[in-house]
């Protein structure tokens, strides 16, 4: 991986080495020269990326150059985005599950090519998990709660309970989308890390023709600027936050936004930055009588009431770990969830970390049940906060603005309540009255949330959903299909520019989107090769096995 320009001109320049950019770059490089620019660093040698046991630490690492970048939406919900080669696949919980056939049809994708593209990913970086005890109990609790049938180990999106794939192997070591770059032609592929793209360059034709993207300006970690030129296309795969931001900074966006920041207009496009959505997550922390084995997402319940139920366990259950901030998948989230969203700040997290040392370690023994709603139907917007691409834009998601989203959350919380009461979960939580009372007292001190006692009261559960809303990092939108890009992911109104990532999604694909985003990178790459090479591309692509 290089840190400075190797050539000045490439067939394709890809902006963003994340879950879509890496498979796309690998695919296109089989026949064309490709420059992949990633604003973050390398995942290799970073134990916060590689080791499952460090998942929570990686998410909350706020040191300069860390793999995850924390931000807070205007709604007050703390969130993260990848700042590392591999993108979200380098910092997430690793769960791998495909989009449903219905989602594929609605997206207008070629079903046969989709069914070729998913396995291409899976053969390289996806594993079947060894089911942890918490996950096995969760599976049985889901079935007892009526989330049936049990569909076994499968990548497919099927109603009922299932065990999905994971990016972590049996040793707890992560694979990432960056590993897919090994399938590219190394002679044709240059990857530059710590390369922050500031603008897309356009050539304006004489007369009434459309502007054409011809290259990019990017900066290295020392703020030195470089230009790179594309003979073919510039493809933005920077994710749902950075892709609409980069379009605006390059002069494609709402007129009022471009005028506000005195950005020369390349194309007035009022829908850039619109349709931003984030699937809200609500969690229940369940204290246990003994430490439980650490597990990330392995089992999922796909209900018919618009919610997906997942589980994790084992964070913060030792004397040493009580001094760590375990991030969003830990008991801290109970503390943050007791603060109204508008008052959630990084200062509040730091203040809690100081107090955490005085809380008994038993408080943090346990696991989580998580409810994510499908869709969602509530949407917001993104706007610039400055003219520097390294400056986080302002994002609003408007969680639970749509009443159907709120109903789906209530259904999810009620399902979690049934799981908590299931016989299998009693093995973890039952204990003598003294110990349980002690745990409840600790929970009060730690402000850990439980399901409200008056859970038959819909209005109470709706308030619980609003007050305890967090994220599961599945935000999307901002460059949506048939609004900003066409069915081939080409930005409408200009030539030579595509956006290929989750910013084009109208809704989140199923329980977890990363499989579909990686598939999309491979899918679009093959489509582009076939478009340029015809039948010859089929045999060429077939070599990448």
**With helices defined by DSSP (H or I, 4 residues minimum), what is the helix count?**
16
Portion of residues within helices: 25-40%
Count all strands and give the number: 23
Q: Provide the gyration radius in Å.
A: 23 Å
Give the low-pLDDT segments: 317-323, 325-338, 432-455
Structural class: alpha/beta
Report how far the terminal alpha carbons are from each other: 23 Å
* Percent of residues in beta strands: 15-25%
How would you characterize the largest beta sheet? 7 strands, mixed
The outline comes out as globular
What is the average per-residue confidence, as pLDDT, rounded to a whole number? 86
List the helices and strands and how they pair.
Blueprint: E1 9-15, H1 21-28, E2 34-37, H2 47-50, H3 55-60, E3 68-72, E4 78-82, E5 95-96, H4 101-107, H5 111-125, H6 133-144, E6 150-153, E7 160-163, E8 165-166, E9 189-192, E10 196-203, E11 212-219, E12 225-236, H7 239-249, E13 252-253, H8 255-260, E14 267-268, E15 274-276, E16 280-287, E17 299-302, E18 307-313, H9 332-337, H10 346-356, E19 366-373, E20 380-383, E21 394-396, H11 403-420, H12 423-429, H13 433-446, H14 458-467, E22 470-471, E23 497-499, H15 514-533, H16 536-542
Parallel strand pairs: 1-2, 1-12, 2-9, 6-7, 12-23, 13-14
Antiparallel strand pairs: 3-4, 5-8, 7-17, 10-11, 11-12, 15-20, 16-19, 16-22, 17-18, 18-19, 20-21
Helix pairs in contact: 1-15, 5-15, 6-11, 11-14, 15-16
